[in-house]
Every structure is written in structure tokens, then in C-alpha cells.
Design brief:
- By secondary structure, the protein is mainly α.
- The chain has one domain: Rhodopsin 7-helix transmembrane proteins (Rhopdopsin 7-helix transmembrane proteins).
- It is built from 6 helices and no strands.
- Helix 2 packs parallel to helix 4 and helix 3 runs antiparallel to helix 4.
Length: about 220
């Protein structure tokens, strides 16, 4: 278990770090979609760097000294934060895809890197505020000087409605955006097919008159 966790930890750090390094190094790659991809990579990188080491301590190695209210609340809040950030970042990326397909040239004229960065900032700000508000009640949660894993289990039981609510919101938003994107793709395909039929029709007329003239 420890070896697998270390491998996944290293792969996450190296993979997401490589994505961020490439986008930071090459100015031509700093586009709106890539900024959103970089944001998701940054969330995953922070998630791995901050939450995996404590997970290995209290769950994989089951360290007896890793206990207490402060550590229990801290690990739970961080886990909530990165879960919400990850879901929100994916929704933003899906929405960006829908806008690009739906509005065509209008979207390419409207989009800017500054607006993408503002969107990233709002994603982080709203996620932090939501997690902070939902975590206020945890400070009254006191089970004494028990192991962090036991704290995590009890906190999850108390906050399962919070987790279920955000998972439901994510699934609904993702389903709606995917449905709208699929609908727009089919609509664009129909337009392209109609345009192609008109083009073929006029091409046939030109060929016909050319044939008559040549005859």
C-alpha cells in the first residue's frame, strides 16, 4: 500500500508539474483552454503535495502519534477544499468547451487570457468561501485525543450531506453541459451537411453548363 501510494504521489507531482512547466515555458501555449488545464493541474498538484503525506501517515502507516482535534479538522477541511476545487475546475473546462462550440467566432473574439485568469480566481475564491462556511460547525466537533482516522470517519458521517449535495450539483451541471455540447455539435453537423449539399448542387450546375458549352 505504501509503495503504490508513493508511486501515485510521484506520478501526480511529476505529471502535473510537467504540464505547468510546459505552459509556463512556452508563451504560445498560454491560451484560454490551456490556462484552464493548468488550473486543474495546479489543483491536482496541491492536492497531492498537501493531502497525500498526511494520508500516508494516518492511514497507510497508521502512526499512533497522529491524533487530536486540530489534525482531524485540518485534514478534513483540506480534503473538502481540493474535492470542491477539482469538481469546479472540471465544470469550468466543460463550460468553456460548450461556449467555444456554441458561439464560434463570437467566442474567439470575446475570450481573453485575462478573463480566463479571472475565472480561475473566482473558482478558487468561491470554493474556499463555500468550504470555510461549511467547516465552521467542525470546530465544535470534539472527540478528545483520538486518532485522526477516527476523527475523519466521524466528520464524514456528520458532513455526508454536504458531500452528497456537491456531488449531485457536479453531476447535474456536468450532465447539462455535456447534453448542450452534444446538441450544439449535432446542430453544427446539420448546418455543415446542408452547406455541403448546396455546394454540391451548384457544382453540379456548373459542371452541367460547362459540359453543354463544351459540347
Amino acid at each position: 500500500m505504501g509503495v503504490l501510494t508513493v508511486i501515485l504521489y510521484a506520478a501526480c507531482l511529476l505529471g502535473n508539474g510537467f504540464v505547468l512547466a510546459v505552459i509556463a515555458r512556452f508563451k504560445s501555449l498560454r491560451t484560454v483552454p490551456n490556462i484552464l488545464v493548468a488550473n486543474l493541474s495546479l489543483v491536482d498538484l496541491f492536492n497531492a503535495a498537501i493531502t497525500v503525506p498526511p494520508y500516508m501517515i494516518y492511514y497507510v502507516f497508521e502512526a499512533s502519534w497522529f491524533k487530536g482535534k486540530a489534525l482531524g479538522i485540518m485534514t478534513s477541511v483540506l480534503n473538502r477544499l481540493f474535492t470542491i476545487l477539482n469538481l469546479a475546475s472540471m465544470i469550468v473546462m466543460l463550460t468553456n468547451t460548450y461556449l467555444a462550440i456554441s458561439f464560434d467566432l463570437k467566442y474567439f473574439v470575446w475570450k481573453t487570457n485575462r478573463k480566463a485568469l479571472l475565472c480561475v480566481f473566482l473558482t478558487w475564491f468561491i470554493s474556499i468561501v463555500l468550504v470555510a462556511i461549511s467547516s465552521i460547525s467542525l470546530f465544535d466537533f470534539n472527540l478528545g485525543d483520538i486518532h485522526v482516522l477516527e476523527y475523519r470517519k466521524e466528520i464524514f458521517k456528520q458532513g455526508r450531506l454536504f458531500v452528497m449535495f456537491f456531488m449531485a450539483i457536479f453531476l447535474i451541471c456536468a450532465a447539462v453541459v455535456c447534453f448542450l455540447t452534444t446538441h450544439e455539435i449535432k446542430k453544427k453537423q446539420k448546418k455543415v451537411f446542408k452547406s455541403f449539399k448546396v455546394f454540391v448542387f451548384y457544382l453540379d450546375i456548373v459542371v452541367f453548363f460547362y459540359s453543354v458549352y463544351d459540347f
